[in-house]
Design goal:
Length: 378
């Protein structure tokens, strides 16, 4: 468990990228908090799809609510919010001990609203009020519309977890939206000391998509006119996710050490912590702690699936290379990626679109499952 000491020294928080009624009822989540340093939880529609459709723990309440005539969307929200509240209560002591800097649990707005700013704001505000917990964050997909919606929610005093961030450019927009919201609140004599936000920057999905593009180029006979370019493409696999994260972290470091933000800190504002999402390693050819090792960075959050969390605590080997050297290496990597013919910005745009679609499909699957409970086949 020595790595827990290193994590604490760095100021990184470990959050669990999973939530279910079974984990709450069995004490499994409490055990992860006690024994593995977990200090928060993230949820999303895919996590709830797995929890609600693969377990019998929800069936009785689903039937009870269905018999009352509740629509499927209301049933889903009722059950999801019960889980979120219980998890928030479990981590409320950490929230209190850290002065509101940690101990959060996140619930996502309906993904189909990702391109509708006004509706996202209305739903985010409604969910935050209904959950009635200070240590809850509302997850908002960071589309262009979502960035503006998150800004509006922050101005209203709603804690926001910006999610589905893939590009450093979009991340910069998210950071600016947070700083602008804090500035607006200060100018309007509203408190900023209890407002919290994280920016969820995705990692492993980027390697999956970039590796696929690189493999296509490597398999084609006419992709490279020199052996050097072929070797560059070969060596580029499995590196895009971490390099991309380092570019974002450089932005984080600059913004939250700036004179502008120091003035907000004097008013009680907290940093918007950068959160590493999708850090479970999907390619079995890569070390199972690849992303956790590379992204043990000061003041960040890493949200991991249970298996990835336990692997990291058991045999993680954090990268201790000086940050400036790693930032330079990331810049070099992307210059080489462009040289071999990979359109990385296009990959990131597609990943954002696919991310919204995936979460929307999960929401649809949950609602269809509940409808099946309401109207069982005869």
């Amino acid at each position: 468990m020595n790595i827990l000491k290193e994590i604490k020294t760095a100021g990184q928080s470990l959050w669990l990228d999973s939530l279910s009624r079974e984990m709450l009822a069995s004490g499994a989540l409490a055990g992860l908090k006690k024994n593995f340093g977990v200090s928060g939880v993230t949820s999303n529609p895919t996590i709830f799809e797995t929890a609600m459709t693969k377990s019998r723990a929800y069936a009785g309440d689903m039937r009870r609510l269905a018999e009352k005539g509740e629509p499927a969307q209301a049933i889903f929200e009722t059950l999801a919010m019960e889980d979120i509240r219980q998890a928030a209560d479990l981590f409320s002591d950490i929230y209190a001990a850290t002065g509101g800097a940690d101990g959060f649990v996140s619930m996502e707005v309906t993904p189909s609203l990702a391109y509708d700013m006004a509706q996202t704001v209305r739903e985010g505000e409604r969910l935050f009020a209904a959950l009635a917990r200070k240590n809850v964050m509302i997850k908002v997909p960071a589309t262009a519309e979502g960035v503006r919606a998150g800004n509006a929610l922050l101005k209203k005093g709603v804690n926001v977890n910006y999610t589905l961030i893939f590009s450093p450019e979009r991340y910069a927009d998210v950071v600016q939206a947070y700083v602008d919201a804090l500035t607006w609140r200060v100018e309007n004599r509203l408190p900023v000391d209890a407002l919290a936000s994280v920016a969820s920057f995705f990692v492993s999905r980027i390697d999956t998509a970039t590796d696929m593009e690189l493999e296509t180029l490597l398999d084609a006979e006419d992709s490279f006119n020199t052996e050097e370019l072929y070797d560059l493409a070969l060596a580029a696999r499995g590196r895009a996710g971490i390099a991309n994260s380092l570019v974002a972290y450089k932005i984080y470091s600059l913004v939250f050490s700036s004179k502008e933000f120091r003035a907000l800190r004097e008013k009680g504002a907290m940093k918007q912590r950068i959160l590493w999402a999708s850090t479970g390693v999907k390619n079995p050819a890569y070390k199972d702690t690849l992303y956790a090792d590379a992204l043990l960075l000061p003041d960040s959050v890493n949200t991991l699936p249970e298996a990835a969390l336990k692997a990291f605590i058991d045999h993680g080997t954090p990268d201790r290379t000086p940050l400036m050297a790693r930032f330079a290496g990331a810049d070099t990597y992307f210059a080489e990626l462009a040289l071999v013919g990979v359109d990385f910005p296009a990959i990131l745009r597609e990943l954002e679109k696919e991310g919204v679609e995936k979460f929307s499909r999960s929401t649809d699957a949950i609602l269809a499952y509940i409808e099946g409970i309401k109207s069982p086949a005869r």
